[in-house]
Amino acid sequence: MSDEKKPELRPPDWVPQPRPTPPFYLNDGGQEAAATIARNEEHRRRQWAAILANAANDTWVPRPPAQPIYVDDGSQDAAVIIALNEQRRRQNMAAILASMTTNHGGNEEYVPPDNFPVLISQALIIPYQKTDEGQLIKAIALPLRAIVQRIKEDRSLMYEIDPRKWEEIVVAAYEASGLWDEVTLTPRSGDRGKDLIAVKKGLMALRVVESVKRKSPGHLVTAEEVDALIGVMNKQPHTNKGIISTTWEFAPRIMDDPDIARLVPTRLQLINGEELVKRLAEYTMPKSQ
User: Average pLDDT for residues 238-242, to the nearest whole number?
Assistant: First the structure.
């Protein structure tokens, strides 16, 4: 008998099996396959529930059309829209990812969308053009509306916000209102007492400057702070109106100052915390709410 090894015999219908791909199991009806299928389905269900829960509030807006509503002709307007769309896409993805975190046990843990510190950490404005006075901005409506809604429900949240972030909220509300053609956020320093500039062009042209005061409870806006804005208005005769807004209140006898009283309300407006919240809601919330 020959010592030569005989070839291995295989069934005539045998073919090489492909390399396994996830989820690396055969659905043979066995207990392990059924468990894997159940885990996958549960994971998918939780993800979808978290996404729906994150969007199920009054800040939700319909998905934009599949085709872009602009022509990318290289113009400044097209560039702004592209930047807004990209920012919105990144924020939507971040919101989905932030809504689910994985603990050490491997289970998803839902983060409520009303987590205020997370909410105010989001970008609210997109600067699109630098000017001699600051940055022209566009507002990102989705997080702005959510922030204003929370503040409307609980005014004390205003005092948790960084003063510069508060300026961004107010300037974003101006732009979101649709009442102004240009809204400028001035630099952190060297703004000469004005934090934002709103301009309306055309027949009823109007230029408004505002000094935004993020004051804690008990801290009043003084006559000297109001005088500083009046000084800015006097040096800029093309400014039609000045506004000082505060998250708290004004000094009780501030209207006894004749230089202030003679300008209110036509050229100067003083807005306290209660009135400010109403204005933010009016500027940012849909008319149906």
Answer: 95
